[in-house]
Amino acid sequence: MVTVADVRTVALSLPRTTEHLIRDRVKFRVGQIVYAALSRDETVLGFGYPREEREALVASDPVKFAFPSQSDMRFQWVHASMAELDVEEMTELVIGAWTMCVPKKVIRAHLGEDYL
């Protein structure tokens, strides 16, 4: 199980990330783009994920992953149960979400040429 501190450690290690408390929810963003957010009770991690791949992700483990609310389906977003995630998987998901909203040159500088 991952904690809010685990998510915060990963997210704040990524360039251009800022943390915000919006309507009692911790959110991590680059500029105005939110790429990861925690539910009010801190049991669900929402994160950016390619729209065309999210159905396969949710189908791969419906206990761990879930679609966002119907009104949020227009966004590239998925939810994950914090209790079902391990730190390695959470790290991969948060970094993946972050890469969706920063320039490729920032990704290369932080993660290396091989990550792209």
Query: What portion of residues belong to β-strands?
Result: 25-35%
Order of helices and strands: HEEEEHEEHH
Write out the strand line-up for the largest beta sheet, numbering strands in chain order.
1-2-3-4-6-5
Number of β-strand runs: 6
Averaged pLDDT:
95
Shape, principal axes of CA atoms: globular
Helix share of residues? 25-40%
Instruction: Please report the distance between the alpha carbons of the first and last residues.
Output: 28 Å
List segments where confidence is low: pLDDT < 50 over at least 5 consecutive residues.
Answer: none
Give the biggest sheet. 6 strands, antiparallel
Q: How does the helix and strand content classify structurally?
A: alpha+beta
Please report the number of helical segments: 4
Using only C-alpha atoms, the radius of gyration works out to 13 Å
Could you explain the architecture of this structure?
The protein is built from 4 helices and 6 strands. With about 120 residues, it is α+β, with helices and mostly antiparallel strands. The chain has a 6-stranded antiparallel sheet with strand order 1-2-3-4-6-5, covered by helices on one side. Helix 1 crosses helix 3. The longest helix is centred in the last third of the chain and has 13 residues, at about 85-100. It starts with a helix and ends in a 5-residue tail after the last helix. The mean pLDDT is about 95. It comes from Lentzea rhizosphaerae. This is MmcQ/YjbR family DNA-binding protein.
